[in-house]
Structure formats: structure tokens, C-alpha cells
Amino acid sequence: MYVWFTVLAALAILPTFLKTLFPYLLQDTIYIFKSIRLAIRLTKYKTKKPFYSILDCFLDAVKKHPHKTLIHFEGNTYSYLQVDKESNKVANALRTHAVLKEGDTVALFLGNEPCFTWIWLGLGKLGCAAALLNYNIRSKSLLHCFSCCGAKVIIAAPELQDAITEILPVLKEQGISVYLLSEKCSTEGIECISDKISQASDEPLPPSLRSSVTVKSTALYIYTSGTTGLPKAALITQERVWAAAFIQAISGVTSEDVFYVNLPLYHSAGFLIGFVGSIERGSTVVLRRKFSASQFWEDCRRHNVTVIQYIGETLRYLCNMPKKENERNHSVRIAIGNGVRIDIWKEFLNRFGDIKVRELYAATEGNVGFINYTSKIGAVGRSNFIQRKLFPHALIKFDTEKEEPVRNSEGLCIRAAPGETGLLVGKITKTSPFNGYAGNKQQTEKKRLSNVFEKGDLYFNSGDLLKIDEENFVYFQDRVGDTFRWKGENVATTEVSDILSMAASIEEANVYGVKVPGHEGRIGMAAVTLKEGKEFDCVDTYCHLANYLPVYARPHFIRIQNALEVTGTFKMKKVKLVEEGFEPAQIQDPLYFLSLAEKKYVPLTQEVYSSIMSKNIKL
Asked: Which stretches make up the AMP-binding enzyme C-terminal domain (predicted)?
């Protein structure tokens, strides 16, 4: 009897003992179980003949629940069956009028609206890849993004016609077919497609049209600003689409959930994690053209939203809204995203209730990622043995001054110690490939790091500094190289420097990102030299940048210098400039601030600086 009593007592205290010794054992076990189950599913899809794509998953969902709402948008609802029929119309129209065939690429220059989704599905039914163009870009950047993916067709929204017209001569020269989602257009070289789509058959297309699509086929091109140059087209395979779609599943989203998408569909977050992830779950999406802090919770209540998506700025905007008595009156239970500060994270939970924040780390083109499945505030995830096995990765020591990994006497990289900040690298293997960038072999090679731990090995260089603590929690620290992130967008400093140097009064420009207290990411700043005999033209520089760059990419602070400091290899130095920031009292050089209200650069006085710090001037 005494022995049995001892055994029962031991069993009774075992859960408490395990929780004390291994506080995250349960969450780790659930996460590992989900990961293995999803890996088995993906393996099954990959080996199935023919390959089972996310499009096939959508078609199965149409059969399973045809009348279930897939999309809520501006007072209208679209069922799975309606979206399927609309995508059939698109496919039949484009097959006839654009003569599209399997393997072709079509560029989509569209905002957040339902037709974005069924045009993509329609292209999938023809076995075509889609290039998702950022609707903020213009001129040289737009032409570059279009050209590098090898697209022969571009489909644009009517409100973006002016941007298309600007590059139309080059498109016509290259024999590119341009279609506008409108019923009338008087511009020669632009063909309207809306009437043709509306008149097309909504009958299903034979699967034979996409019979050659495999797990390694290109499904999408999503653009990301790299360390240098113009935006790069990350090549997203069918396998990668599945991997991104599974993020909702790993976060605990079910088919009964309603997912709120207010991030741009041209980004991997809004499109792959949000929309495509909802197709994988068989759930409903609430789609919004643009994020609105004032309407956010009203939308959530109106549509009974249970899962929201965010970037760091999103949650900050919500926390900056005036408090209301009913702000906890909602059904949201999960938030998936990245880039939220610890203080905002805490304030968000205090104000809006017990929402499971699934902060994640991933790169569109990367081969390793993390997700915080424990809700530990501040972490972007955990590094566990299953993940290290399937997707080998490490943090290595990095010299931020030289902007290169630290190597030992044998020329190999050195692992960062637990708790030490290091550069994240992911081993390039069959299960964790790096597919590179379309039409940009040079930039693809730059992201490959060899001789990391063994001679001849090959790793993906994330360009990000992370930290893994003693408990295996992962924390994002900073970005390296020539990219900064502002308003949820990556900005390539070389592109901005090139454009800024074209301004009438500027000789050279060195662009970098600086931190602003109370804001996520880094805002753009530039150190410039002026042309001989010229003064800084505040109005012309503003107008020039407004013509070429979206607001988030424009330098908000400009520092006039006599000469730009460079390295021995003539690379512009940024570290000291970043550290010095933009406080007038600490800098002798003339400083200017981008005033959107006055549509010009204005002197950055101590008074203006104080207004920025107190947030009386909005950035």
C-alpha cells in the first residue's frame, strides 16, 4: 500500500516537476508534433502524381463548401464557388486574348481587391507564374521589377494607368502586352480586359493545361529590397508556397476562423501567409484595401474576425488610438506578424485582451524561419532540435564595422555563443534550398556564404543579426548591410542614393537608416555633398524624390557634408553616421527635414527636432 501511495504521489507531482524543469515542454511538444504532421503532408503532396498544389487544395475546398464565404470586401461577399468561377473567366479570357500558356509569367500591378485573388488563381489554372508588383513603385524601379521576372504580359488596375503610361514606350519596344482592368482606355498600346473577362466562360479548365507544374515550378515572384541596387525578384516555388501557407496551421488557425488581411497582397505576409494560408485552412478572409487604425476593431467586430495580421507599425498605430470602452469587445484570439517592439506588445495585450501573439521571423527568399508559439514577449521564436535537423542554421560572429563574418585562422566562421548577437545563416540543402533572385545572378551569389563551418559548405546569408538565449529563444536584433526597414517596407539604400544623386543640387549621396525613439525600424537619412557652386535646393529635391520614390523610401533627414567618408575600397562609411543620428545639437553639419505638409525640405532646427521627439510631428 505504501509503495502504491508513493507511486501515485510521484505521478501527481510529475507534471509540476516537469513544468519547473522544462517550462516549455508542452508547447515544444505540440509545435514539434504539428511540424512533423505538416512535413508529412507536404511530402505526400510532393510525391503525388500529378503534384498536389495549393490550387488543387482550393478546388477541393470549392467542392467541400462551395457556398462558404472566402472573401469579405467593402460590403460584398464572395463564396469559394464564386471565386472559382471568376478565376475560370480570367483563365479563359487570358488564354484566348493574351495567348497564355503553361510556363508563362504575368505581372500583376494591382491593389488589394478581390480580383487580385481570382486573377492569380486563374493564372494558376493555366500553369502560369505571377509577379506581384508593388503598386507604390514607379519609373525605373517599376520597369526593372517587370523586366527581371521575364514577364510578357502585365495586368494593371485603372488607378495605376499613369504609372504604366510612363514606361509604356519601353514596354511596347519589348513587345509586352499591357492589359488594364477597365472597359475603356484611349491610350494606344494598352488593351482593356474587363469586358473580355466578364464575357468569358466560367467553365472549368482542363488540368492538362498545367500538367507540367511540379513542386519545384515557379509559382510567384515577390519583390524584396536587398542590400544593394533595385528591388530583387525572389523566386517562390510551389513548395515554398505550401511552406508559407502552413504558418497559419502552425499558429493554431482552423477552418472556422476569420482572417483579417489589411497588409498589401504584393507582400509575402499578406498574400502567402494571409490569403493563401486561408485557402489551406479552408477559412474566410476579410480583405481591406489599406490598413486603417480607426476602422480596425470595427471591421473585426462587424465580420467576427478571429485572427489578425500585423507588422510592428500596425500594433503601434492601434495602441496610439484613443481608448474606448468597447476596445476589448471583439473575437480576435490570434495575431500573426513580425516587428513589434516589446513595449508595444505589452501595451497591446493590456488594452485589447488575451490575444496570442505569434511573432515570427522569416525572409521572403530565405531558407530558415522562426515563430513564437509560446507567447513569450519579445521573442521571434525558439530554436529546437527538429528545426535544426530539418533546416540547419546557426548564428555566427559578425564584424559590423567591416560588414563581414569573423573567421578563424583556418578561414572558417565562428559560432556565436548563447546570448551573443550573431549573423543568421541557413545551410542550403535539398530540404532547405535558396532559390535566389530572377535575372540577378550577382545578387543571388552575394547571398550565398561558403566555407562557413567546413570547406566547401554553402549557407544562405540572411543579412540579419539575431540572438539565441540559454533557453533557445530567438530574438531579432538588427539588419546589416545597406537595407533598412521603415513602415513595414524594406528600403535599399543604393537605389535611394542613385535617385537622390540625380537631384539638381546634389553631387553624391550616402543613404542609411536611423532609429527614432518610439518607432519601429529605421527611418531614411542621407548624408550628401552639393555640386560646386550650388546650394541645397529644398523644393527641387523634394519634388525629385516624390516623382521617383514612395514616401516610406524618401530620406526624411538630409545632412549636408563637405565630403563623404569612404573606406579603402571606396565603399561609403555608414556606421558613424548611423550612430550620430539627426540631433542638431550634436551635429555641426547643416540638417534638413522632409516636410510633407510644406512639400519641401526645411531646416532641422532644435524646435523641429523636439517636435519629432514629442511626436507632435508625425513620421
From this structure: 498-571
CA 315 to CA 335: how far, in whole Å? 10
The secondary structure element, H or E, covering residue 479 is strand 473-479
Q: Are 193 and 181 in contact (CB under 8 A)?
A: yes
SS3 assignment, position 267: coil
Tally of helices (H runs) and strands (E runs) in the chain: 20, 30
Digit-coded pLDDT (tens) for 224-251: 864 445 789 999 999 999 999 999 999 9
d(CA 43, CA 242): 11
Sequence-ordered alpha helix ranges (H) in 383-427: 385-390
Cα 433 from chain centroid?
Answer: 19
List, in order, residues 6 or more apart from 353 with CB less than 8 Å away: 328, 330, 332
Q: Sign of dihedral through CA atoms 411, 416, 422, 423?
A: positive
Helices (H), 321-428: 342-352, 385-390
* Structural domains present in the chain: 2-37 (no CATH), 48-290 (3.40.50.980), 384-428+442-479 (2.30.38.10), 483-613 (3.30.300.30)
Helix boundaries (H) for 391-480: 441-446
Q: Which amino acid is at 324?
A: K
Look at the pTM and tell me if it is higher than 0.85. Answer: yes
Neighbour tally for 22: CB within 10 Å: 11
